[in-house]
Amino acid sequence: MRKDIHPDNYRLCVFKDMGTGDQFITRSCANTRDTVEVDGVEYPLVKMEISGYSHPFYTGKKKLVDTAGRVDKFRNRYAKFKK
Q1: Shortest CA distance to 52 belongs to which of 83, 15, 80, 6?
Q2: Rg, C-alpha atoms of the chain
Q3: Domain ranges (residues) in the chain
Q4: Is residue 64 over pLDDT 60?
Q5: DSSP letter for each residue of 2-67
Q6: Mean pLDDT, to the nearest integer, of 11-33?
Q7: Residue 81 has what DSSP assignment?
Q8: Which helix (H) or strand (E) holds 74?
Q9: CA-to-CA distance for 72 and 68, rounded, in angstroms?
């Protein structure tokens, strides 16, 4: 392997899915502010919104996120072009 190409802060981190609460430990050099204790060992914590535990592709659940009726507004606006 070539020398001096890897980051200095490559270490074990806990990645936590904030939607489901699931977490897993893997190596990363992501910047973190928080720490968490797992099995008596303290690790840096990386918070995620979506992971393999909650992503619709992996869970098989289809979910439509509609914020403030945007889908309905879109459909109403372009309904006149549908023939």
Answers
A1: 15
A2: 20
A3: 11-81
A4: no
A5: -TT-S-TT-EEEEEEETTT--EEEEEE----SEEEEETTEEEEEEEES--TTT-HHHH-------S
A6: 91
A7: G
A8: helix 70-78
A9: 9
